[in-house]
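Q: Translation initiation factor IF-2, mitochondrial, please. Structure only.
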Amino acid sequence: MEADALRAQFGLQRVAESVSSRQQFQSQPKLHQSVERDALASRFAKPSGVAEHGPSEDQEWRKLAVDQEAALEKGEGMERVEEDSLEEEQGMERIRAAAQQVRERERAGRFSKFADVEEDDAPRKRKTKGGWSKASAYEDEEADFGRAERKSKKKDKRKQRVVQVAPPTPIYLPEYLSVVNLANMLRVRTEDLVRKMEELGFEDINNDDILNSENAGLIAMEYNFEPAAADPSQDLDLYPAPEPEDLASLPARPPVITIMGHVDHGKTTLLDFLRKSSVAATEFGGITQHIGAFSVPLSGGKTITFLDTPGHAAFLSMRERGANVTDIVILVVAADDSVKPQTIEAIKHAKAARVPMIVAINKVDKEGANIERVKQDLARHGVDIEDFGGDVQAIPVSGKTGQGMQDLEEAAITLSEILDHRADPEGPVEGWILEAATKKSGKAATILVRRGTLKVGSIVVAGRTFARVRSIRNEAGVDIPSVGPGMPAEIDGWRGQPEAGDEVLEAPDEQRATEVVEYREANAERVQMAKDMEAINEARRLEHERREREEAIAAAAKAGEEDPEAAVAAAAAAEAAENAKSGVIEVPFIVKADVSGSVEAVVDYVMTVGNGEVRPRVIRSGVGPVGEFDIDYAATAGGHVVSFNVGLDPRLARMAESKGVRVLEQNVIYRLVDDVKDVLSEKLEPTVVQRVSGEAAVLQVFSIALGRKQSLNIAGCRVTNGSVARGAKVRVFRGEEKVYDGTVSSLKQVKKDVSEMRKGSECGMAFEGWGDFQPGDTIQCYEERFEKRSL
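A: Structure for Translation initiation factor IF-2, mitochondrial:
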């Protein structure tokens, strides 16, 4: 019995130790191998302190150990089943939680292919020759540990894929494209793209709106695209050569001096004295109309090129060009008129171009000349005169008498020597177009050569046209074989009409010139396309707003049980009437002039005329005389033709008269502006002026029966001022309130019809459509006159 009790006690002890070792195994999987080995070995070992027994006792002990091992295996199997069940349940819970997360992400539109879905952690079975069998505790736990490790690595890789952003994809965008086309290129839905653009700050986006490449590139970058830059090899334009580093080794060139100043301050007369020719006599109205360029050999053997820029405000842009191509500015200021607005503008242009200045105080021979006042005014506007400690020479001169002209020449030569102007006479020609005109020999242009030597046969590009030079003429009209740096000349042979201010560059051959012109034309078309796209977008936006208004009006009418179409039509009619009432009247003009600089100036000046009611609109402009197409174009558009400094063929004058087209011919710009003002003034609504012609006081009211229960009220009146007449406009005042405004339908003296009654007489008056007279009312007769308005 003692042995049985002892064996039972030790058996329970072994079971407890086995369970304890199993718990340690679960909490520390890495100790699995050593713990499992110790537990199995201990099951067959005798407990310490137990005495040795015989063979029978050993057999009984072994039997007890086998029974204990069987019981232990049965308990471990049950534990594993429970653990498998628990792990399976936990796995299902994780799967259900992951599925719920996926549904929530899909519902929120944030589903990602990188969403982490936990794998099923249920225990796996091991395949054997006899089929599928459950793995041992050791193998099962090792497999679980391996799976956990692999899952952790996969999750880390997935996180890395999410964090690492792919590099931007290059995308080539055209210059202009619609929203729909951009969506197709970005492979996104148009609705999503519009939503994204609204988030970026774009407003009123329609699918057909046109985007430029800059805006499209910014949007593409939001979708991880990189707009590709233009290929530099595609730039086919022609550019001037860089400035040489060593100018001292180059030969000297004539300085280019520009004469600037206020209108009629004597610039042309001053130049006339310098070159000893009567230029001023050929200028209409004594005002220079376009840039004149000529070279003047001075007494010291030096040659100076002079540019005579117009002083009139209309030629502001031409004067700016003169300052940009010049070396020295001679600012002419009249001693009797001092500094004027265009004088201040000339000072600003010279300073902006960083061109040194000499002041010529002209007309010192006139009465009222005040040289000191001129110097003070110039100093007040930032001109540092030498007398006041500056470096700008101020020389009193007279273009008429020649006083001080020698000093002016010396000052110009001295300053040019200090500046030491040099240029390379070799290499490709560079220069500027000073003026362009169409002559009998064809299209011609005056150019100023800046570098190189221009020869007959040279191919030059200017703006969007080119020329193979057929002939070169100096300012006297004499053919010369070539022209060098710092010298002006007139050349012909142009394929198209160049523009004043265009840069002139020599091309190696005609093919290269053609490439450059085509490239520039394509660029100009792109610029024009950009303006057109903006206008199209604006028109579409206005149309979209109009449709929205009409839909809102129709919906409101439908809700109020009204006819939607009638409501929309009424609203459209009211809007059209309002626009016509407050809109600005535009008068079309076609401008033709002798040279491109004059065309430019006339267009600019014409566009400054007008007010909030009427304004001009130049629909066509060009160099040359008025042609049949100009007259037909003006007749179709209901406009007028401006002919500045060009003649009009008598046949075309009769044609214009028959078509109702007015041709405004002038040689002086301020007279032309007056003509344009007269044309615009005709479109202004006249001013209505009311003048009171007589007054009468109502003394009593009579009622006259007209038959069939109809009656007419007659006002018995006394004329207090002026006269009243039948058919005249009349208004009735009751106190300060006007109660009637209409016409006198009947005027009688006693029973006799009269046409007019004067002050002091009594009469009876009846009014058209009204008879609510009261004694004490005041009747006013008035006249309306329409007075013509002018700008």
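A: Brief note, in case it's useful. The first strand starts at residue 126 and ends at 128.
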